[in-house]
Amino acid sequence: MANLTIVSVDDEYPALELIRHYCERMEDVDLLEVFQNPQDALEYLKENRVDLVILDINMPYINGIELLLQLPYKPLCIFLTLETQYAVKAFELDVVHYLVKPVDFETFRKAVTKAKDFLQFKKSTEDQKKEDFIMFKSNYIMNKVLLEDIKWIQGFGEYIILITHLKKYMILERMSNFEEKFQNLGFIRIHKSYIVLSSHISSYDTANVYLKDGEKLPLGRTYKNSLKAYLN
């Protein structure tokens, strides 16, 4: 398995130096960058996918939670902070660990190892043979639809419309929930209102995504980098 790639963000320089020192003592991890300015970190992370971000929470301009929520993809995250009141919010964000400063090396090592183990499990699951269909409830009926028949998914607030070659299904579910539930099957968000299967994409340009069946869908500005990273 490739090394775990890490970016650390903390407005306190000594904390970044400690993390750098801890990472140097560990095998199979690559600390790619450290940032004192969270806005610089946000710009970097929008352009570069990493496996794990280690974030302070209380920082100027943008806090760690806001930074995490603005990323176009969902890396693993460890919060490393003096604050204790955000633990519940961290749990809601499915972070790997919530560490309260000061943190010794062994505690840090266990948290990063947990992230490595989770990533390895996720990748091994993705490498297994994927199902060629999905199941969902529409109009109080469970439906089974083959992936090859799905054209795209379009969001309308609390509902999504799943469009196939034969019919449309209205599903009471938010786009973000659908995306998270089925992302291992190759679905990717290309716009705030559109999700498609990566295997159905023929090409894309600065404004549109072109599907293999000739359909054209809009490409949202904030999703360009994640689409490029995913397909490359």
UniProtKB/TrEMBL annotation:
Keyword Glycoprotein set for record: no
InterPro entries: CheY-like_superfamily (IPR011006), LytR-like (IPR046947), LytTR_DNA-bd_dom (IPR007492), Sig_transdc_resp-reg_receiver (IPR001789)
SMART domains associated with the record: LytTR, REC
Record keywords: DNA-binding, Phosphoprotein
Highest taxon of the lineage: Bacteria
Domain HTH LytTR-type as annotated: residue spans: 144-232
Keyword Nuclease included in the entry's annotation: no
Pfam families: LytTR, Response_reg
Modified positions (4-aspartylphosphate) in chain numbering: D56
GO molecular function: DNA binding; phosphorelay response regulator activity
SUPFAM superfamilies: CheY-like
PROSITE patterns tied to this protein: HTH_LYTTR (PS50930), RESPONSE_REGULATORY (PS50110)
PANTHER family: STAGE 0 SPORULATION PROTEIN A HOMOLOG (PTHR37299:SF1), TRANSCRIPTIONAL REGULATOR-RELATED (PTHR37299)
UniProt protein name: DNA-binding LytR/AlgR family response regulator
Source organism: Chryseobacterium rhizosphaerae
